[in-house]
Amino acid sequence: MEINNFWVYFAARPLFWILVTLTVFQLALWLNKKARGHSLAHPVMISLTLIILLLLLTETDYDTYFEGAQFIHFLLGPATVALAIPLYDHFARIRRMLLPILVSCLVGSVTAVISAVGIAWLLGSSTPMLLSLAPKSVTSPIAIGIAEQIGGYPSLAAGLVLITGVIGCLLAPSVFRILKIQDDSVKGFALGLAAHGFGTAYALQMSMLAGAFAGLAMGLTGVFSSFLVPLVVRLAGLG
Amino acid sequence: MLVGFILLMLCQLLGEILVVVSGLPVPGPVAGMLILLIGLMIHGEVPESLRLPAEGLIRHLSLLFIPAGVGLLVHLERLAQEWWILAISLVVSTLVTLVITAWLMQRLQKKQDGAEVMHGDQ
């Protein structure tokens, strides 16, 4: 009884769940290092699994958790604004390659939305699920915003984005091998477009050039998609 | 550092206001990012006081996804019902997106490089 009261007291404080989130993430970073950065052992996937298990075991609901975790969540806004800095840093290169970049990004973003929603729709998925699936290739801070706007579940959208990131990193090496792609800027760009932040982190392991193009693709896809996804949803009559 | 944080949040606030006023279908922070990008182009460089907090935030970007991602908890039942649809859709769609983007970008880049070489010869 005593211990139970103690738990109720602590679990209700915002501090507790902030601390849990940070500690679990640090632990996940460490585990990821042990697994030599394997994309299946992505720190975010490990953290999500551990925290969800912890919440289920302690019968804590998501609202209680979020009361603390919202302080971390809040930083997504300023972090999204901060993506302007890498975009600015690579601006000279972007300007030179502007046409290939814009065309590939537009075609890639459209492909990502339509293929994901189209396949799920053909397989009979529910509308809220389709709306949460639509921004799956977009970096989470923007995807959450898009999902909120078109009427999907923001938290579900964020989760699907993360899963997409892992899938992208797993598939990319084979795709590049089969298509015989050697140029790091192309590899990075495709990774950043299809698998946002996860793809960018993976591209940075290849080279700085790949990383720069991945960051660029991630930013541009985010901007394009925030116009494009609501439009596609409206045209498809889902919104 | 503090100045940088103020700038980031100020741009976000301006972005949020712009979105509400104009009704553009963009999340406020994205509008804020574009405002900051334009500001940096006008200013001509990234102030050190801005670079420090901005790169700190970007470096830990994946940590910031976690609170929203844990929200999958609320949707476990829905996920259990539709997991195979999601799995097929996510894998096929991500594969197709990777293939099309990489292939197109490579083609266009080669074409442009070729055009530049020809241009250089003239």
UniProtKB/TrEMBL annotation, chain A:
<feature type="transmembrane region" description="Helical">
    <location>
        <begin position="188"/>
        <end position="204"/>
    </location>
</feature>
<keyword id="KW-1133">Transmembrane helix</keyword>
<dbReference type="GO" id="GO:0016020">
    <property type="term" value="C:membrane"/>
</dbReference>
<keyword id="KW-0472">Membrane</keyword>
<feature type="transmembrane region" description="Helical">
    <location>
        <begin position="156"/>
        <end position="176"/>
    </location>
</feature>
<dbReference type="InterPro" id="IPR007300">
    <property type="entry name" value="CidB/LrgB"/>
</dbReference>
<feature type="transmembrane region" description="Helical">
    <location>
        <begin position="6"/>
        <end position="28"/>
    </location>
</feature>
<feature type="transmembrane region" description="Helical">
    <location>
        <begin position="40"/>
        <end position="58"/>
    </location>
</feature>
<feature type="transmembrane region" description="Helical">
    <location>
        <begin position="100"/>
        <end position="123"/>
    </location>
</feature>
<feature type="transmembrane region" description="Helical">
    <location>
        <begin position="70"/>
        <end position="88"/>
    </location>
</feature>
<protein>
    <submittedName>
        <fullName>LrgB family protein</fullName>
    </submittedName>
</protein>
<dbReference type="Pfam" id="PF04172">
    <property type="entry name" value="LrgB"/>
</dbReference>
<keyword id="KW-0812">Transmembrane</keyword>
<feature type="transmembrane region" description="Helical">
    <location>
        <begin position="210"/>
        <end position="233"/>
    </location>
</feature>
From TrEMBL, chain B:
<dbReference type="InterPro" id="IPR005538">
    <property type="entry name" value="LrgA/CidA"/>
</dbReference>
<keyword id="KW-1133">Transmembrane helix</keyword>
<keyword id="KW-1003">Cell membrane</keyword>
<dbReference type="GO" id="GO:0005886">
    <property type="term" value="C:plasma membrane"/>
</dbReference>
<feature type="transmembrane region" description="Helical">
    <location>
        <begin position="83"/>
        <end position="104"/>
    </location>
</feature>
<dbReference type="Pfam" id="PF03788">
    <property type="entry name" value="LrgA"/>
</dbReference>
<keyword id="KW-0472">Membrane</keyword>
<feature type="transmembrane region" description="Helical">
    <location>
        <begin position="25"/>
        <end position="44"/>
    </location>
</feature>
<protein>
    <submittedName>
        <fullName>CidA/LrgA family protein</fullName>
    </submittedName>
</protein>
<keyword id="KW-0812">Transmembrane</keyword>
<feature type="transmembrane region" description="Helical">
    <location>
        <begin position="56"/>
        <end position="77"/>
    </location>
</feature>
